[in-house]
Design brief:
five-stranded antiparallel beta sheet; 20 strands; about 0% helix; elongated
Length: about 290
């Protein structure tokens, strides 16, 4: 059974950093085979598409007919496997999206017969940007393969509102090049968004459930966190490296979903601070850096 656990992800801000910093990928909240329910549409159907939401050896799969044979869902190429709703919460002010990375954990039943035909971004139900399908055929070992990166925009322009949208994601379509039926398997899909601020601070956010933190022009620290389940109480705290508490707030009757706290930091000196979220599900601690 697929299980989602609460993890902690922190956005670490670096002033005048040359490249975005990644805090790791996010998982999709929604996954489906395109043209769902249409038996007469062309392309083999992906079974168990929701299995791509976590890496756990349970896979979405499709079995494609021999090359060039296609009748409705018995076809040598697949329908699109659509992964969306990654839960990004990128700040919307003074932000430039500079890169998108998708990672697909996949393998085939037989080596060197299955290939990518389409790997494109999704938004509002349509594919957008360039096709970043890889040229090499699939192997039989279950590995992650990377599409895009920290400075790759897939040939399109995106706003924070676009990547925060629940319809934003990635689409995968495959084909069989052999003369016999062949199966393809996808264990996990994850994505990372990279962005910079117009103030010279460069950082990134990824879609694991948990907490993120970033400084706004040295005057405020914004803390964002997401919970998979309702929580009766939690404690959100910020410390300096001497262990002195600079901010603490008890959180009560929290519903599942996204939450945000912000407080003034004009008196903070440049340095490293520790953000801690304590919940009934566990305690999670990371660091955030304030530059000069």
């Amino acid at each position: 059974m697929k299980k989602t656990i609460l993890t902690l992800v922190l956005m670490t801000a670096f002033v005048y950093s040359a490249m975005p910093q990644s805090q790791g990928p996010y998982n999709p909240g929604t996954a489906q085979s395109s043209q769902n329910g249409c038996l007469s549409c062309l392309g083999s159907i992906w079974g168990n598409p929701n299995y791509v939401m976590a890496s756990d050896n349970q896979t979405a799969s499709t079995t494609m007919a021999a090359v060039s044979n296609c009748f409705q869902s018995t076809c040598w190429y697949s329908r699109e496997l659509l992964s969306t709703n990654f839960g990004f919460n990128v700040p919307t002010s003074n932000i430039n999206i500079v890169g998108i990375k998708a990672e697909i954990q996949r393998n085939a039943f037989s080596a060197n017969v299955i290939k990518d035909t389409i790997v494109r971004l999704l938004l509002s139900g349509a594919t957008i940007g360039n096709n970043l399908a890889l040229a090499n055929k699939w192997g039989i070992t279950n590995n992650y393969y990377t599409y895009g990166g920290a400075t790759n925009m897939w040939g399109t322009a995106l706003t924070p509102a676009n990547v925060n949208d629940a319809t934003f994601g990635v689409s995968l379509k495959t084909a069989n090049t052999s003369t016999s039926n062949q199966s393809a398997y996808v264990d996990h899909v994850r994505m990372t968004v990279y962005y910079t601020t117009t103030t010279g601070i460069t950082y990134s956010v990824s879609s694991e459930n948990g907490i993120s933190a970033y400084f706004n022009d040295r005057r405020n620290l914004t803390l964002s966190y997401r919970l998979d389940k309702d929580a009766s109480s939690a404690q959100l705290s910020v410390y300096n490296l001497l262990g002195q508490s600079l901010y603490s707030k008890k959180l009560e009757d929290l519903s599942a979903g996204s939450h945000m706290e912000e407080f003034g930091t004009s008196a903070f000196e440049a340095g490293v601070y520790v953000v801690r979220l304590s919940t009934p599900q566990g305690e999670y601690t990371r660091k955030v850096t304030l530059g000069q």
